[in-house]
Amino acid sequence: MMATEGWLVLQPNYRDSSGYGDEFLYGVRLKMVYRPGKDILFGVDALIRDGIADPRQLTIGGYSYDGYLTNWLITQTTRFNAAIIGAGAIEHVIDWGANDMPKSNAYFLGGYPWQMPTRYQEEAAVFEMNKVKTPTHIVTGGIDVRVPVAESYLLERSLRVLGIPTKLIVFPGQGHELNNNPWHEKIKVREELKWLQKYGHIFLRPLVGRKFLLFLDCWTTQTDLKKFRAVFPHQDSQLLVFPEGSTGHIQPQDLSLFRSWRYFHKKIEHYVHINRTEMNLNDRQYFINMHSIIHNQLSAPPFKNLIKSGFIQAKILNEIVGEINKPKDVCFKFYDLYCLAIRCEKRTLLTCAWCKRHLCYYHLIEDLHLHL
Ligand SMILES: [Zn+2]
Ligand SMILES: [Zn+2]
User: Fold this and answer.
1) ipTM at complex level
2) Ligand 1 center–CA 98 separation, angstroms
3) 152 CA distance to ligand 1 centroid (A)?
4) Which of 23, 122, 292, 302 is 20 to 30 A from residue 91's alpha carbon, by CA?
């Protein structure tokens, strides 16, 4: 399923897998996450070295034991942009005591918790959670006893406390195999693909449609076409570089486009302050999302004349335009409305210039309300 969305999938044959003899098979004993974790990273590095994988767009995921390993690896490295986890444990004490395989953890860790307390701690992601930076999606069956459902609650609560984006889906009536209701399997894949779409390409990549125009100043560091193509590999885009000495000619853009852009920004900032909205200002993704939303709103049909008028004032176009709508009238006319998203009653931040829905901060920016 991941491959259908363009992801290259590496399924490494790490230690604990069959086919390489007993030593390899039992090689995870006493280091049940550390050692296979190293094997997986070795495979990732090989793909990067061979130029097959893009180191800026790595994601990771796994179910069951692969969930344990994913949980562990996001504590060991921040190189993965997103993680999708299913039924994975993040510690071994409750896992030993509550799962339906009473021997497994005790075998893998060389004894019971009171015999090997240090090893139970060393091999458990929960004690290293403060190192996680990776947005993490979690699914589990509500009555899973192979990997107790409590492990997923523990993971989700830890990430929430640490402020890492996370989402937990518990499928009611499902055990470890998730095979009681085919819809659940479908929902699992659908939500995981959405998570990868949202966080997987996190490096400085504005969220724009397939077609767009990009204006750049003539500084040589900015007008590097190679860098540009690396950021927008799939877009049918065009790059316009302002020639040297042309700053004066683009001043009128300040009056229309750039002023409107600032207006949007200011409104979002005010909303955040007034409503004490939680957000992480250190998060680069926050800025990318916010500016992508502003770009997308200003690209909406109601602003066509507004954008055109800037080009006319700059004498780039020679046309007469009709009525000019400003963001103030299109998006910010009403304040005392409530978000139209399902089960959301937060105050509205703006009215979408595309679909006219009233949306709160969360449903506009965090949930990326884009018309691409
Ligand atoms: Zn909309
Ligand atoms: Zn909302």
Assistant:
1) 0.94
2) 46
3) 34
4) 23
Q: What amino acid occupies position 222? A: Q
Tens of pLDDT, residue by residue over 146-198, are: 999 999 999 999 999 988 899 999 999 999 999 999 999 999 999 999 999 98
In which residue are the tokens 């937990």 written? 168
CA of 293 to the centre of ligand 1 (A): 10
User: 300 CA to middle of ligand 1, Å?
Assistant: 9
Among residues 147, 183, 182, 188, which one has the least CA distance to residue 170?
Answer: 188
| Distance from the alpha carbon of residue 273 to the mean position of ligand 2, in angstroms | 17
Q: Which CATH architecture is the domain 3-199 placed in?
A: 3-Layer(aba) Sandwich (3.40)
Q: What is the pLDDT of residues 193-249, one digit of tens each?
A: 999 998 887 655 566 666 776 666 666 666 666 766 666 766 666 667 777 777 666
Domain ranges of the chain: 3-199, 246-366
d(CA 275, ligand 2 centre) in Å: 13
Which ligand is the nearest neighbour of the Cα of 347?
A: 2
